[in-house]
Specification:
The chain is α/β, with parallel strands linked by helices and about 180 residues long. It is elongated, with a radius of gyration of 24 Å. The chain starts with a helix and ends with a helix. The protein folds into 2 domains: about 60 residues, Orthogonal Bundle (Arc Repressor Mutant, subunit A), CATH 1.10.10; about 100 residues, 3-Layer(aba) Sandwich (Cobalt-precorrin-4 Transmethylase, domain 1). It contains 7 helices and 6 strands; from the N terminus they run αααββαβαββαβα. A hairpin with a 5-residue loop joins strand 1 and strand 2.
């Protein structure tokens, strides 16, 4: 997410919780200093994303303008499309990997524990005709299956699964990045 979009979203979220939030509270919600928030608010007012009114002599109230809300929606859509494109690229790469797994004589992919990208593994296995299953991280590692240690397992559990023959999700992603960078050269 782009820095301005992230700040605008943080401001929006804070104002949703407290419509009279101070600059200090907006800054805390965004993880920046009050001085930086002051500069951000001025920049966003100039862009037409934020407006402010005087509540009293010492207090200002901030609100997102329709243009600010539109900017969040527009950039959110762009972010979502980019994320879907990345997911599609990884899906294609995992399909390619699982084709190799099938060629090596394996008929099953087993995810041990949990993973944010379980859906990619399930989809890719189905695409190449491999059985996919997910089991608990403490299940016995099947030596005749392609075994994946989920990245959401505790670090020591992941290491133990890798030592027993599983492949780490991180290694799959790293191998994929290397393939992508080599293809780009």
């Amino acid at each position: 997410m782009q820095p301005d979009l992230a700040l605008l979203q943080n401001i929006s979220d804070t104002l949703e919780q407290d419509s009279l939030a101070s600059q200090r509270k907006l800054a805390e919600g965004s993880g920046i200093t009050v001085g930086s928030m002051n500069a951000v608010l001025k920049r966003f007012v100039e862009r037409g994303w934020i407006m402010f009114t005087n509540v009293n002599k010492r207090k200002l109230a901030y609100a997102l303008t329709p243009a600010g809300l539109e900017e969040l929606a527009r950039r959110g859509k762009t972010f979502a499309l980019r994320t879907l494109q990345i997911a599609n690229n990884y899906s294609n790469s995992v399909v390619h990997l699982f084709n190799k797994v099938r060629a090596e004589g394996k008929n099953e992919v087993i995810l041990y524990g949990t993973s944010y990208i379980k859906f990619v593994f399930s989809y890719a296995a189905g695409e190449v005709g491999l059985k996919f299953s997910q089991v608990s991280a403490d299940a016995e590692v099947e030596q005749d299956a392609y075994c994946i240690a989920g990245e959401l397992n505790a670090e020591d559990v992941q290491k133990d699964l890798v030592n027993k023959g599983c492949v780490s999700v991180y290694d799959i992603i790293e191998d994929d990045r290397n393939l992508i960078s080599k293809a780009g050269n």
